[in-house]
Design a protein that fits this description.
The complex is a heterodimer of chains A (119) and B (345). Chain A is mainly alpha-helical and 119 residues long. Chain A is built from four helices and no strands. In chain A, α2 crosses α3 and α2 runs antiparallel to α4. The radius of gyration of chain B is 21 Å and the shape is globular. Classes of the chains: A mainly alpha (119), B alpha+beta (345).
Chain lengths: 119, 345
């Protein structure tokens, strides 16, 4: 069942805007520690807003790449578990171009959600 | 009838008055006690002790007494950190060897009721990386900082091991095993960290012939500096014996540049400037490949620490939104690792 608007992303953005623009200035005056904690919360809400918007497609792309890299089906956790096992065992390494392309694409999608300004 | 339950500040004041009186051999009055920072488990307090009309400006480092239950929950990830008594003796040995460290004065006794704790002299300066890296008053200091950090590190590595309390010896192989062990406790698979740990395992530097005092957390944010540069190296709880290049690599991890990404030496200068100052001050000749290995290692280490910080919250050991949010910073190191492995530097 589709939920009504606002979408998850829109609602998260509205909460973050309220906390940043209305709550934080007052909290900074009353208790700077609470002001700081609210900035942490606003930052986390911004991550969730991007995740609600970008996460589902990123997960689907990651799973598709893993299926093709590993040559088997599975859920995202199962496939990542198998890839991690192969990497610890040294069965694949950084000389594997398909592996590196997969890890770079996955990391690019993750950082676009967690911290797009990272460089 | 009302019962007076002393506040934490009253309890700390009372314990400090007893301990300071014992140390100075004269009655001491505690003035201006304020909590500086830190979480529930590791506290820093600033205060003055007035003894015979003399004002001593001091700092208390303290682990409050904790219940056995919360200790065992947090135990696995804290086992590598020094207790306060050992930290006290490491800082004292470093200070006596001429390292720019705080001068530690005395430890508290169990009957003082403050938990594991010690007192040191207060040193001027700030530790806030963003101010040190950007604010105008520190412009001149910024020019000197990479060199100073290299020189001080050479002095730390020259501390006579015989002057130190017993410390763990941790070489490259121990570190890799320990990070893999931490990954196994997280319950999620981490392909990029596994790739990097295998890369590191295949290129391990040989075990050091003469292990030195390694600070273990030598980075921007963990020292005080003022307009003249570095005033004191802090946060010695990760000290151990091992490879001196470990500290040089850790200082250059990109996360400790706080945005000044083109200045690898803690956000202040080039690796080469850091190494040259280190060598001039008596440090061993720095092999760039070995320094690169330790920088890759440090990047994996910080990424996995991000997950263990979040895990403190997720496991229920220490409920904290701030700790939880650090889990989402781990991917920053994944980006950096793929870059480091691709370019070789």
């Amino acid at each position: 069942m589709a939920q009504d608007r606002p979408t998850a992303s829109e609602l998260l953005a509205a909460i973050a805007d309220f906390l940043r623009e209305e709550a934080t200035p007052t909290l900074d005056r009353v208790d700077p520690r609470l002001g700081f904690q609210t900035r942490v919360a606003v930052n986390s809400l911004a991550i969730l807003e991007r995740e609600a918007r970008l996460g589902p497609d990123a997960d689907a792309r990651e799973r598709q790449r893993l299926v093709s890299l590993l040559g088997r089906e599975g859920t995202l956790p199962e496939l990542n578990h198998e890839l991690a096992r192969q990497l610890r065992a040294g069965e694949r390494d950084e000389r594997d171009a398909a592996l590196m392309a997969h890890l770079e694409a996955t990391t690019a999608d993750k950082i676009a959600i967690a911290n797009p300004k990272w460089r | 009838m009302t019962v007076h339950i002393p506040s934490e500040t009253e309890a700390v004041t009372s314990g400090l008055a007893t301990a300071a009186g014992r140390h100075f051999g004269r009655p001491a009055t505690i003035d201006g006690l304020t909590r500086q920072s830190g979480g529930a488990s590791r506290q820093t307090w600033s205060f003055d002790a007035l003894v015979d009309g003399t004002r001593h400006e001091l700092i208390l480092r303290r682990d409050p007494p904790t219940s056995a239950a919360s200790q065992s929950k947090a135990g696995s990830e804290r086992s590598a950190a020094l207790d306060r008594g050992t930290e006290f003796r490491v800082i004292r040995a470093a200070w006596q060897a001429g390292v720019r460290a705080p001068e530690v004065l005395f430890e508290l006794e169990p009957q003082d009721g403050l938990g594991e704790a010690f007192v040191m002299r207060r040193v001027g300066g700030i530790a806030i990386a963003r101010k040190l890296l950007r604010d105008p008053p520190y412009a001149a200091a910024r020019e000197k900082m990479a060199g100073q950090l290299g020189e001080i590190l050479a002095r730390i590595h020259a501390v006579d091991p015989a002057s130190l309390p017993p410390l763990d010896r941790r070489e490259a192989g121990h570190h890799i095993a320990s990070l893999r062990g931490l990954l196994d406790t997280l319950g999620t698979s981490q392909p990029v960290f596994e790739l990097a740990l295998t890369w590191l395992d295949r290129r391990k530097p040989p075990t050091t012939v003469r292990p030195v005092l390694v600070h273990g957390d030598y980075r921007t944010g963990n020292y005080l500096a003022d307009e003249t540069g570095v005033t004191a190296i802090l946060d010695w709880e990760g000290a151990h014996l091992g490879d001196p290049i470990e500290d040089l690599g850790w200082l250059c991890v990109k996360s400790w540049r706080f945005g000044a990404v083109d200045k690898p030496a803690g956000g202040f200068g080039s690796r080469e400037a850091l190494w040259a100052a280190y060598e001039r001050a008596g440090g061993i000749k720095v092999d760039p490949a070995r320094a690169h290995w330790w920088e890759v290692f440090g990047t994996v280490r910080w990424g996995i620490i991000c997950h263990t910080q979040a895990w403190k919250h997720l496991s229920g050991a220490q409920k904290s939104m701030e700790l939880a949010s650090i889990g989402r910073r781990a991917v920053e190191t994944e980006v950096d690792l793929l870059q480091l492995l691709k370019t070789g530097g």
